[in-house]
Amino acid sequence: MITSPSRGIRLLCSAAAQSNETLDILNTGAKIPLLGFGTYAKDNPQDYPPSLIYEAIKQGFRHFDCAEAYQTEGAVGRGIKKALQEGIVRRDDLFITSKLWNHHHRRQDVLPTLKHSLQQLQLDYVDAYLIHWPVTDNPGPGLDPPYQETWQAMEALLSTGVTAAIGVSNMSIKKLTEVLSYAEVTPAINQIEMHPMWRNSDLLAFNRVHGIHTSAWAPLGGQIVRGASVVPSAEMPWQMQANLQALNFTLSDEDMAAVGGLKEQTRQHDCVEPMDPMFRPFFQPQGPWKSRAELWDDPVTYAHLPEGQL
């Protein structure tokens, strides 16, 4: 039993079990496996194979990161259902996350949207439900509806039994500070981009101080050492096995210092492609966010974007 650098306790179980080897404790008391399985499909999400999820469960994955916007929840649900029916796992062995998309931020839309995800996943509840982005699809100079309204609707979910925890995603320190100023329930999770080329150390430290678990997308295994859960994807069994090996090695202090010394600190993933209709409303001339810099609340650099596109 090792004290976790993020919050609570990290539990190390038998490697032979290949399930839930490493866990962190959320501020709700729930256990989240630090190695997850991402279900985003860049191409043809309608063809996402349920067998991929079934195989991932057989390989030992227990934490699945889903979202309405990924358009794969139906396939994920079928894969989970098969594993449950065959007795490979029980529901309480799994940690399932879903996320609220931008056009469902109004108070009256939050619960029905989660219920639709549950229908797709063929589950009675998710273990965590996150607001995917601090963005709404409605035009105008302000956030409509206000983010506070959305968060209050998220808090109301907890009394309905449809989710065990609520959280946010892609939240900067500035925006998360504002949420904490009015939140009755502190977010359990903040999922962010984090890897050696974008360590996001200040935000990781902020989350830790406030008892918020950090989940990393676009990660490498070293982020587990930093106390974050990670949600890499895989398409083949050998890729799943490679990801599982993140739990079977350690990095020395010298290794971590070398990784921490990488100089290029830029976001590597532009998740707001202007030609994608799902993402087009992220930036608008009239606001609320006119640029990537306003979304992230810092001087933004991307490895692959000319400065004029920031």
UniProtKB/TrEMBL annotation:
GO MF annotations in UniProt: oxidoreductase activity
Domain of life assignment: Eukaryota
One Pfam family hit: Aldo_ket_red
Location of the active site: Y70
Site (described: Lowers pKa of active site Tyr): K99
Amino acids binding substrate: H132
Sequence ranges assigned to domain NADP-dependent oxidoreductase in this UniProt record: 36-227
Protein name in the entry: NADP-dependent oxidoreductase domain-containing protein
Source organism of this protein record: Symbiochloris irregularis
Phylogenetic lineage: Eukaryota, Viridiplantae, Chlorophyta, core chlorophytes, Trebouxiophyceae
